[in-house]
């Protein structure tokens, strides 16, 4: 039976919380635990019996299968994560495959010299997130008419004196806000803070637009990105709902816990709400400034009885299973993680049981019975 346990890599980012991932896998280290990586990316290569997952894949070709081995050169094409979000993440955007390949090649000499770069690999980054608890996020731009109406109402003085002249288009507005002198940015943020100070931060368990602004102002004082909740769509995901993020879409997760799956990439171009490097020119070059109507991922039942969420990529799919038995065969390489109870994989006389917080790598084409007593999530390479 080609199914093995894997151990993920915990990322201690400042925006993480201190309880969700420790309650899932144990081993609390006293720091905010933001992400649990389950994949073979060099920035967070999971462990398989003391060996890196990326090395294990190269030595065990059957896990990708002959067709996908040639297609992906022995590299797992997706990365699965558990996210635990306590504070707003940076405003960020990810490149397409062509953009990533060009950017990676262009920065080759910088990497050799040890200089800061914008591209961590040559792969596109398309992703989706499924909520395990209520999630509030920013995703894509609103229409320029909606933005102008809200800004003229919320910060009328700053809008008339500073913002209105360059609010003719989303691209002009975005670039101009970042190019303003610091005193002008500060005056906008001061008026913004006063305007929303008495507004409710939560409604029906989710952060309101004003609540997100408060979080941004508190965490990133002086960062003009705190104005962006008025430029962007506010999206709320209830547990069990999912949302896709395609390359070129500006977004930021703000609060909540979830399962994320993406291409095997760590390419992040930031645009505010961060103390990290911002490459504004490169960000604007890859970003789509068109207004976005956000649609949640649809869910259906696959041929094995599992809940399948519509994916934005042909490199990965995301599935969930609840208590019951599932006969699975003929699918691509996959990773499963148990979030509640336990799961037993069995094939003939062989079996493997995963407890809450444990994960497994499942070989391509493997036939097995999955007995679920609780809840599990699976990221899979579509056949």
Characterise this structure.
- This protein is α+β, with helices and mostly antiparallel strands and 383 residues long.
- The chain has three domains: 8-137 and 238-276, Jelly Rolls, CATH 2.60.120.10; 142-231; 299-380, Jelly Rolls, CATH 2.60.120.10.
- The protein is 25% helix and 32% strand.
- The chain is built from eleven helices and 22 strands.
- It has helices at residues 20-25, 53-59, 66-72, 97-106, 108-112, 144-154, 156-163, 170-179, 182-196, 209-219, 280-286; strands at residues 3-6, 9-11, 35-38, 47-48, 51-52, 78-85, 92-93, 127-131, 135-141, 202-203, 206-207, 232-237, 242-245, 251-263, 269-270, 299-301, 307-309, 317-328, 334-347, 350-355, 359-362, 368-380.
- Strands 1, 16, 17, 18, 19, 20, 21 and 22 form an eight-stranded antiparallel β-sheet that branches. Strands 2, 3, 6, 8, 9, 12, 13 and 14 form an eight-stranded antiparallel β-sheet that branches. Strands 4-5 form a two-stranded antiparallel ribbon.
- The longest helix is centred in the middle third of the chain and has 15 residues, at 182-196.
- It starts with a strand and ends with a strand.
